[in-house]
Amino acid sequence: MKVTQIRSFPVEDEEGRRYFVVRVDTDAGIHGLGEIGIVWWGKAIGEAIDHLATLVVGGDPWETERLWQEMFRSSFFPADRVYSCAISAIDIALWDIKGKSVDRPVYKLLGGAVRDRVVCYTHTQGATVQELVDNSMRAVEEGWKFVRWGQPESSGQMANRSMNETRIGHLQPETSNRIAVEQMSQVRNAVGPDINICFDVHTRLDPHHVIKLCKDLEEFKPFFIEDPVRSENQGTYRLVREKINLPIAAGEQWSSKWPFRQVIEEDLIDYARIDLCNVGGLTEALKITHWAETHYIDIAPHNPLGPVSAAACVALCMASTNVGVQEMPFGAPGTYAAKLFPQQVEWDDGYAWCADRPGLGVEFSIEEAEHSYFEPGGFAPRLLRDDGAFTNW
What we know:
Number of helices: 13
Helix content: 25-40%
CATH topology of the largest domain: TIM Barrel
Strand content: 15-25%
CATH class of the largest domain: Alpha Beta
Number of domains: 2
Order of helices and strands: EEEHHHHEHEEHEHEHEHEHHEHEEEHEE
Strand order of the largest sheet: 5-7-8-9-10-11
CATH architecture of the largest domain: Alpha-Beta Barrel
Shape: globular
């Protein structure tokens, strides 16, 4: 069996959510699906996929480690985030092909199930504190065991918006932190002590601001604080670790195993937020997961994306001992993008699992994709401080 073709499909569902799907075909008539992690960079990543295809076409899909090494290292300079996203999509698709070729789910190729299902959280953002509380209560009523939202804007929480809508918001740290404390107080009071809370700082704060915030949030016992500081300097996590007494989750912006080295070896995080569609696919994510296990660090895979990413994440979680929780941003799988992805992972009562279907168990409609194409580009929403300075979204 040899790879014969690699194609890219930037698509938009009926609610305006965007996904960048990659399909890898073989001469055996078996195809696999992958997904990239940074949709805004889709044009550049699409070029990288076409470039890497010259290495992969003609290759054996079962040789995922060899193909990964060639894709990552063949330009002498190690792959950057653009190329890591491209590698991720191709690698995930190759694993999908491997599973289909032997009529086995991917999670069985990763070692087999160590759990029957994977607990998940959805996003419960709100434009106001009351809307956040209402959304959180609605999620609990739907069966979710976790609620999650992010560092609020100074004027209130950023509401969910279409990915193609660029906007400018404002985030002054002191004001934002006061709102965050009020949010968590009211949500905790509403959902009770048994529902877990994930709070995402989203790299929006400097260390001294996040240290103060975490001390104020301790009484509400959040499950973790995600991305408390920017990701470029992993050493900053040592400072934060020494000053706060809350579990830390980080890693979604790291694009290979190497940026994880310091935080794992120095025990600076509690949850590894591995993004399978950024970090190098299942091949690389499996290595990081097992490495984290030796330090009793759980994984909480980052998944702000579509059904292919979700399936790869759930497959990894089903086959891994050290799992905290899995992100499912848009609600229950199967309730969104169903025309593009008529078959997705299974979900019930706050848990997801991979059915015993070959590969990832996800179907993608090329016919629907032809009517759902979008031109990749644009940027994330922009946040400004009161003085006009740029801050992370």
